[in-house]
Amino acid sequence: MASRKISPGGTINGAVELPGDKSISHRYAIIAALAEGPSEIANYASAADCRSTLECLRRLGVEIATKDRLVHIAGKGLDGLQEPRKPLDAENSGSTMRMLSGVLAGQRFRSVITGDDSLRRRPMRRIIDPLRQMSADIHGDDRGCAPLEIRGGNLHAIDFTPPTPSAQVKSAILFAGLYADAVTTVHESVRTRDHTEIALREFGANIEVSRGAIRIHPRPKLAPRRLIVPGDISGAVFLLAAALILPDSSLLLHNVGLNPTRSRVLDFLISLGAKIHVPALASRDGELVGDVSVNYAPLAGGEISGAQVAEMIDELPMLAALGPFTEKGIEIHDAQELRLKESDRISTLAAGLRAMGARVEEFPDGLRVEGKEGPAGRSAAAPGAKLHGATVDPCGDHRIAMALAVAALGAEGKSTIRDAECVGVSFPEFFDTLERLRGLS
Ligand code: S3P
């Protein structure tokens, strides 16, 4: 697979319109397929994961036409999906597999959903167990992994608290709840992204949210919609971080999704000393959207734990990789979920950063990446490590590839990111955008 060379230095300057948010695109596509009539989704994510969702929906008999980032979906109503002739392939996309399984649990036909090697290693009991409680017939392999075989229909409503905070699990149950015999409730002790709740309401579902309890009423008539997907804040963070590593940088990001369940990462960067501004917020299709500007500023360092983890789960690799560029480093705890993502993100990132000379301590639930000051008590004569260029392996994980590529901008000497095209899973334009902003293309 193709690797990518990164030469360090330069500045980030300019403005970018980001591709559509991956999480929101999945949800709009799935709900549009269940609506009664044609929906139009603009700025649909260019992410390969979101194409996987469209392909699965096509195999379920949904007509979908795409032109650039505009997607037309001919919704078939809650009961219009057809039994697929072949297994559905979610490829690398956990969101596709987990959220679609909720929909499939409501169908009277048999379906099988599978994925690539990485996805077939990821835990699916977290959706198998609650969907079985709703009386779906759903089986994985003996480790509770995909392929999943699902025979649905006649679902019972449940009152469920996911043992691990997860927006994908919450969404799977809410989608199954559309087909249940009464009101289904999901309780959240830790808040996770609420795009499913917002999108279901936009399409006309009856959904109530109060004090951590989300209640979905069954069998709504979902109305088709025209929607615009906001720019992906999780992709934006890699560009923001590049501007915070390279002195004199100045970057403007247009129309970024700023849903409060996703934008905590900006507050965290500001708490480190980043000069980030959001001049105005607008509400579009129930989601907050705004421009985000950043100017280079030195960063202090900080810690992330507890409820912050779920709110910044996809940004943690980039935040950790900022560690060597901060004064005091970055320390992350309570993030054992990172080990269950597209790769074991704690060990993949630690290995990559160490190869570049960073000092990294790995914990079962996180990591500490040393800053410029070095460990507490170390004298100024023995400062933390400065990064040097290296060949690094992101293990096929898009967010690790981008985090290491951005760290490589601040290293001494060239780096090589192996298997770099894996960034296409969430942000195919990443390397081109970075080059353009650095004036290299
Ligand atoms: C997502 C939820 C998160 C996140 C993933 C996308 C979503 O996963 O890491 O990239 O769109 O709901 P979990 O639900 O497993 O925390």
Tell me briefly what this model is.
By secondary structure, the chain is an alpha/beta fold. 29% of the residues lie in helices and 23% in strands. Strands 2, 15, 16, 17 and 18 form a 5-stranded mixed β-sheet that branches. Strands 4-5-3-14 form a 4-stranded mixed β-sheet, covered by helices on one side.
Description:
With 441 residues, this protein is of the alpha/beta class. It has 2 domains: 4-19 and 230-437, Enolpyruvate transferase domain (UDP-n-acetylglucosamine1-carboxyvinyl-transferase, Chain), CATH 3.65.10.10; 22-228, Enolpyruvate transferase domain (UDP-n-acetylglucosamine1-carboxyvinyl-transferase, Chain, Alpha-beta prism), CATH 3.65.10. The chain has 13 helices and 24 strands. It has helices spanning 22-34, 48-59, 94-104, 125-133, 167-177, 195-202, 233-245, 264-272, 307-311, 316-321, 345-355, 398-409, 430-437; strands at residues 4-6, 13-17, 36-42, 63-67, 70-76, 88-89, 110-114, 137-139, 148-151, 159-160, 184-187, 207-210, 213-216, 226-228, 250-257, 275-277, 281-284, 287-295, 302-304, 330-332, 360-363, 366-369, 391-392, 415-417. Strands 2, 15, 16, 17 and 18 form a 5-stranded mixed beta sheet that branches. It has a 4-stranded mixed beta sheet with strand order 4-5-3-14, covered by helices on one side. It has a 4-stranded mixed beta sheet with strand order 6-7-9-8. Helix 3 links the parallel strand 6 and strand 7 (110-114). Helix 4 (125-133) packs parallel to helix 5 (167-177). The protein is globular and about 65 Å long. It starts with a strand and ends with a helix.
